[in-house]
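Side project, low priority. Logging it here so it doesn't get lost.
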Amino acid sequence: MIRPITLPLLVLALAGVLAMVISVGVGSVAISPADVLSVFLGEGSNLQRTLILELRLPRTLSAFATGGLLAVAGALMQVLLRNPLADPYVLGLSGGAAVGALLAMLAGLGGAVISGSAFAGALLATLMVFGLAHGTGSWTPSRLLLTGVVVAAGWGAVITLMLAISPARELPGMLYWLMGDVSYARIPWPGLVLLTVVCVLVVPLGRSLNVLARGPMQAAALGISVRPLEWLIYILASLLTATAVTMAGSIGFVGLVVPHMLRLVLGNDQRLILPACALAGGTLLVLADTLARVVIAPEQLPVGVITALLGVPTFLYLLYRSR
């Protein structure tokens, strides 16, 4: 007998597997599902093994990890700020990561250093927002949100200045990174491991998160240690966002639309929402990346363009439905 809380996760897991099979099979050279299976069984031609195992599979897994990280981070941010419109980038983490990555690009450094610089920039933005929001007293969700918005605006100004003074030859790569792109993400395992670990850690806290979402005073009255729990949520959401931005740049709307949509369908139980966000966010970004690869083939679009084109009308429709 399948428990009601398990059935949606099974459906989303099957959808994720199907999306990944489609992703590794679709491209300039089409590969049938049977051939994909034969490659995973150690058979298939050399061309098929190269295309799937060395090119498409790492990109697909990177897209899945990035989408899952952003969706879970968005769900945590919405609980922390008690605001359904919060997303992983609302506190300026993507701006800090972008400045770090663009500085590395201007210095002519390689991919690994760019990723490390982006991660360092995201952590710097996290420390800035938390330190400024805390001030001389304690921070509140509204104060944290306002501080994040101001810091994000500051990072945006720095990014605009850097683009204005950058050499013309560096602009295409910088703009692609800013729009979000997984074509250069070839090491998905850190993101997948982090996503799994965070889901395992957070799901047991689901009851506490459910109470915290109703307000800090009610949570404190029911015996929840509100401040340590809020710190934990903030640290985990920041780490998830920093890792996602490091892997694929700034990809919008995944962390905003996916948790919002799942809450309308599945309710507000964080024990179900958080793992569902990991699966649904990963599936959405895999499908978006597949579409980005084939819509104007042989050219490719940044996946951030596809998520924006899909996310804007979807979110407007959800707002209209919940008026």
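Brief comment: The chain has a mean pLDDT of 84.
Revisit when time allows.
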